[in-house]
Automatic annotation (TrEMBL):
UniProt-recorded Gene Ontology molecular function terms: phosphorelay response regulator activity; transcription cis-regulatory region binding
Native organism taxonomy: Bacteria, Bacillati, Bacillota, Clostridia, Eubacteriales
Pfam families: Response_reg, Trans_reg_C
Residue ranges of every copy of the Response regulatory domain listed in the record: 3-116
Name under which the protein is recorded: Stage 0 sporulation protein A homolog
Protein species of origin: Clostridium collagenovorans DSM 3089
GO cellular component: cytosol; protein-DNA complex
Length: 223
């Protein structure tokens, strides 16, 4: 069953789309909080996104750009702003198709089916870990928070990955070093301390100064 996320602030249209897609056997969900759409994208992990242009807080172009930072999921713009300039803009921002409002539900379902057929192969699913707006991309070892995106070293990436996989739990230093050894990285207790310090410095530069906490006598954790 394909998951389809609807980013549309007109609730009548959003519910109509959700109902029609469910009748066709899709798992559909519409966004209700428009100040942080990317959180819904990460948590729902859709195989296709329907995206309006005119939205509260930030427009659809902004969210298309944010989605493209972490995923190649197909995006269909749906908008009454269907002049040539907006259609070209939508495609240039990373959209895969454009449907003008008002639309026929049969047409939109047919376009969705065609785009899903062309895409999967499953190149569009995301491979990320998200926590409190922090997105760790497992494909390219980058970490993103708000407008910041930075690259991590192999050890820094592994450390934060382990902590994010165990949110709310203290991970002991020995367990972290064992995981790092598995990736053929020579690391001892002092090397781990240096790597955690460098990781914290990078996180602090992104506005996450207290993201990785020390649990005395145990190790580290992310709450």
């Amino acid at each position: 069953m394909y998951r389809i996320l609807i980013v549309e602030d007109d609730m009548i249209i959003a519910k109509e789309l959700e109902g029609a897609l469910k009748q066709w056997g899709y798992e559909a969900k519409y966004v209700s909080e428009f100040n942080d759409v990317i959180t819904d994208v990460v948590s729902f992990d859709p195989q296709l996104v329907l995206l309006d242009i005119s939205l509260p807080f930030f427009n659809g172009y902004h969210w298309c750009s944010e989605i493209r930072k972490i995923s190649k999921v197909p995006i269909i713009f749906i908008s009454s702003m269907s002049d040539n300039m907006n259609i070209v803009m939508a495609m240039n921002m990373g959209g895969d198709d454009f449907i003008s409002k008002p639309f026929d539900l049969n047409v939109i379902v047919a376009k969705i089916q065609a785009l899903l057929r062309r895409t999967y192969s499953f190149n569009g699913t995301m491979n990320v870990i998200e926590h409190k707006g922090v997105v760790l991309n497992l494909n390219d070892t980058t970490i993103q928070y708000k407008d910041f995106k930075i690259e991590l070293t192999k050890n820094e990436f592994k450390i934060i990955q382990i902590l994010l996989e165990n949110v709310g739990k203290a991970v002991c230093r020995d367990d972290i070093m064992t995981r790092l050894w598995e990736s053929d990285s020579y690391i001892d207790d002092n090397t781990l301390t240096v790597n955690v310090t460098r990781l914290r410095k990078k996180l602090s530069e992104m506005g996450l100064s207290d993201f990785v906490k020390t649990k005395k006598g145990i190790g580290y954790m992310v709450e």
